[in-house]
Model the fold of this input.
Amino acid sequence: MEEIISRQRAFFNTHSTKELSFRLEQLEKLGHVLTTHEQQLNEAIFKDFKKSPIENYITELALLLKEIKDIKNNLHYWARKKRVATNLANFPAASYLYPEPLGVCLVIGAWNYPYQLSFAPVIAAIAAGNTVVLKPSELPSHTSSLMATLVKDHFDPAFFTVVEGGVEATTELLDQKFDKIFFTGSTKVGKIVYKAAAKNLTPVTLEMGGKSPAIIMKDAHLKMTVKRLIWAKFLNSGQTCIAPDYVMIEESIEEEFLKLAKEEILSAKYAFENDNYVQIINESNFDRLVGLLDPDKIYYGGKTDKDNRYIQPTLMFNVTFEDAVMQEEIFGPLLPVIVFDKLDHAIDKIRSLPKPLSCYIFTRNKQTERKLLKELSFGGGAINEALMHISNPHLPFGGVGNSGIGNYHGEAGFEAFSHYKSILKKPTWLELPLKYPPYSSSKFRWLKRLMKL
Ligand code: NAD
Done:
């Protein structure tokens, strides 16, 4: 590990990564690798958890290619020095912000979208002019090893390399001094990463999870709500950090919602026989999810197939916050539905829980929308939609509180891997005597006036 990092530090110190042409060339190369190896990427992810080529494209590769395209269009603007205003006390002068790369960066990925969650932070780190060590999740072993091979075949390890492995390898990496650590994963491991980073005062971005609610009001367009929500929940078999974890719904429309939700699951064929239905990543997650199923509370679904690690899309009703399914982030295809009578009660309950990564608000009432946005804190989300906010590169993506520290995607990704050096530039043709001793009461009066402006 030490050698990898010292080689990267030596390369960073050559200043090659600071050239925009170098960064763009590397990003172009990564885009080319992803495009020309699409079939291999599809095969590896299918072996890992039966993710289909179409879902691999729309939820992984397309996002990465779009991110590269946006950077190619905007990098010149993001990376140039920016002039800012200067206060009167410094007259005459000009003030600038100089974005500069942080240095050698560590990116630790999660398993649920293995390509996207590994390469998207890498793309941002490269755009900002850093070198990168990527540690993908070890759980999808085929994607992890393919990423390692592709990166080894196409990039200089002194600039970008992959270290494969699990807890042991990550712990060893975290013992090294990096200039930035970007972590995606659970809140539990996020705390371990934060602690390790603190030893060297390394800045971090922590992209974590939590229980993201979907709040459905009786004035919502219920059919559209169900369509969007069911897709968002059962995509990747619910193994999505921003999946709606549970539904909170006005009591009077619960029955209608459940009926429509079941119909939607059946008509869109979110089921075992669907070629696009993704497996649960491993046996321990399968067993954990089965443990959250309460047979008395299953409205629809609940069937499981241990040999193939499938769990049927499941709707749970009569659920309370005391049930097992409400004690942890579900991260699987179980959708608990909890009713409320008054919106304030629902808000109070959500506010008493750790701040979620996302929240989805389904209403056509502007006042309700404003109230929820004002009173609930969460990473990001959508109104009358779910999940899709992640696909807009103009919306910084990240959590708050237990769900994360920092943001990325688009310019926010560039900022996450940059330091903005503040520079005041003074000409030498004038120097006002006010700040220099000997002080006098008239100087003091002037200074007091000037420094407020
Ligand atoms: P995880 O925390 O178990 O693992 C994440 C990474 O940390 C992996 O690379 C793993 O090898 C490493 N790791 C695991 N245990 C470690 C330890 N003790 N010490 C050091 N490193 C360790 O998370 P996961 O199971 O891969 O992903 C699921 C979680 O990630 C969910 O909570 C989900 O919400 C969250 N997530 C968040 C986002 C986001 O963008 N905010 C995206 C995907 C997943």
Q: What stands out?
A: Residues 105 and 180 are 5 Å apart (CA to CA).
